[in-house]
């Protein structure tokens, strides 16, 4: 699928230390001196860290060294961060400190902040594999647009976080780096494809991350790892530029018409911090237009009209999740919000099938000519009621069929738009259950999940969060409460197109009135 293989192995060895747990690199990091209450600054919220950096309560180099020492202790058992550029990060931190000392100014809102980036986003001079052996030695000579935005804001990119091969699974493992574990329980999945990013944020290995989301890849891992994540709005173009995201292959200028990038953080306020950096036009468009997401117009929960869709026969949830949604409804009602418990904006089955058709169609763009010809032949010979028909016939649909599917998508967008004339937000489960058992060693056709003792499709994990995906609506996952086993639970907020900031604001308002989610052991040990 990706035939381009970089020949820059020597550059990769010089630019980054691969697989920190399997190298001596961790041993060369030392804890920064404490003092001034900054000895645990690397575990503070990102907003606290950038404030301390700006006020020179801690240097970027000291913060980085704290974080690297934490990596040395935590990452070997988690395998969330798979590539580190220690030398480059230290040089960048020193440069940031010198600039601030000399000018008294910062380069941007993330000045001197060390953070990691998902291994699906190309980083200049740093190995970027997307978990594919075809890209084992791929060292880009250009940053992905989103990475360039991070650097322009003053962030220090210290390394890359793990993904499934080519981001094509909803748990995280690949033949180059192996499996990322859930930070709460080793037998549970961290989710995918942003499993490495979500686990790294949860475990304090980075204060912020940028995840990508086509079929829940950003939000499912956040739900399973107990952190916040925002799938940003997408119309004809995304509000966060996607060039440089793999897949598509390196050097492609386009991406899927449903892929979005968005922030992952430990607090809603930190989501807002990173959203301010990422919501920007691509460099080619930046001279002509800007992105200004509307600010929230309401400041109290009592002002909101809230739909709650707690369960559905198409994708039933377990008893713990139903109880959680009941708690959410009670808390909102107590806060004075107007609640609609009977809300059903769309038919979930119809929406999900349309999403799958569009997903399979866009994913075929990078198939080889020979492979795609074989798929066309097989699809044409297949009956419509064949179990594999939805997949193959969608991947090989004619442009006329895609245009009609896109028309159905636009009509679905209209239905959602009408819904949000009478409701401000919709709250749903993030997934049918908390984090499911990891099934890395099980072939995909044999995988399944269990919901209150009933076997269900493996891909039912994403049905709720994929309500927003085909229609480009913003969707925020926030951690709320825990299961009897101590696993984090989450809910999803969906809002109208371009209401990203409103969703973040609502998440901030909800946090104090809902059950607190647990912190990963790595944050409290």
Automatic annotation (TrEMBL):
Lineage top rank: taxon: Bacteria
Residue span, Amidase domain: 63-503
Signal peptide: 1-26
Keywords, sorted A to Z: Signal
InterPro entries: Amidase_dom, AS_sf, FAAH2, TAT_signal
PROSITE patterns xrefs: TAT (PS51318)
Keyword Signal: yes
GO cellular component: endomembrane system
Name under which the protein is recorded: Amidase
PANTHER family in alphabetical order: FATTY-ACID AMIDE HYDROLASE (PTHR43372), FATTY-ACID AMIDE HYDROLASE 2 (PTHR43372:SF4)
């Amino acid at each position: 699928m990706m035939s381009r293989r970089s020949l820059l192995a020597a550059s990769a060895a010089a630019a980054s230390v691969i697989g920190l747990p399997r190298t001596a690199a961790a041993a060369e990091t030392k804890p920064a001196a404490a003092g001034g209450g900054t000895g645990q600054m690397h575990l503070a919220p990102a907003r606290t860290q950038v404030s301390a950096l700006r006020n020179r309560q801690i240097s970027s180099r000291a913060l980085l060294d704290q974080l690297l020492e934490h990596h040395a202790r935590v990452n070997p058992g988690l395998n969330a961060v798979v590539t580190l550029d220690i030398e480059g990060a230290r040089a960048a931190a020193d440069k940031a400190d010198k600039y601030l000392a000399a000018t008294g100014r910062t380069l941007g809102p993330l000045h001197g902040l060390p953070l990691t980036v998902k291994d699906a986003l190309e980083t200049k001079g740093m190995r970027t594999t997307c978990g594919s052996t075809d890209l084992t030695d791929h060292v880009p000579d250009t940053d992905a647009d989103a990475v360039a935005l991070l650097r322009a804001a003053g962030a220090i990119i210290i390394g890359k976080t793990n993904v499934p091969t080519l981001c094509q699974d909803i748990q995280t493992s690949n033949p180059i780096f192996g499996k990322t574990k859930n930070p709460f329980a080793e037998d549970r999945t961290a989710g995918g494809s942003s499993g490495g990013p979500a686990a790294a944020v949860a475990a304090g290995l980075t204060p912020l991350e940028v995840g990508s989301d086509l079929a829940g890849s950003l939000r499912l891992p956040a739900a399973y790892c107990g952190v916040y994540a925002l799938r940003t709005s997408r119309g004809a173009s995304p509000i966060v530029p996607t060039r440089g995201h793999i897949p598509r292959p390196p050097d492609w200028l386009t991406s899927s018409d449903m892929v979005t990038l968005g922030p992952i953080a430990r607090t809603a306020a930190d989501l807002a911090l990173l959203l301010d950096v990422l919501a920007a036009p691509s460099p080619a468009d930046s001279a002509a237009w800007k992105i200004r997401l509307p600010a929230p117009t309401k400041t109290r929960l009592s002002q909101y009209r809230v739909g709650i869709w707690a369960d559905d026969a198409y994708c039933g949830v377990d008893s713990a999740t139903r109880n959680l949604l009941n708690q959410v409804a009670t808390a909102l009602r107590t806060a004075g919000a107007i609640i609609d418990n009977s809300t059903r904006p769309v038919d979930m089955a119809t929406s999900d099938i349309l999403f799958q058709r569009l997903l399979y169609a866009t994913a075929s763009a990078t198939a080889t000519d020979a492979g795609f010809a074989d798929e066309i032949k097989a699809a044409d010979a297949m009956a419509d009621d064949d179990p594999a028909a939805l997949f193959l016939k969608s991947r090989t649909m004619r442009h006329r069929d895609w245009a009609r599917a896109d028309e159905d998508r636009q009509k679905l967008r209209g239905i959602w738009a009408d819904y949000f004339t009478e409701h401000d937000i919709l709250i749903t489960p993030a997934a049918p259950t908390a984090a499911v058992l990891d099934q890395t060693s099980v072939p995909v056709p044999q995988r399944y999940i269990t919901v209150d003792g009933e076997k269900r499709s493996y891909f039912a994990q994403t049905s709720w969060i994929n309500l927003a995906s085909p229609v480009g609506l913003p969707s925020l996952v926030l951690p709320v409460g825990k299961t009897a086993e101590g696993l984090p639970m989450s809910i999803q907020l969906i809002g109208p197109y371009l209401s990203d900031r409103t969703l973040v604001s609502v998440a901030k308002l909800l946090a104090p009135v809902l059950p607190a989610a647990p912190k990963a052991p790595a944050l409290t040990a």
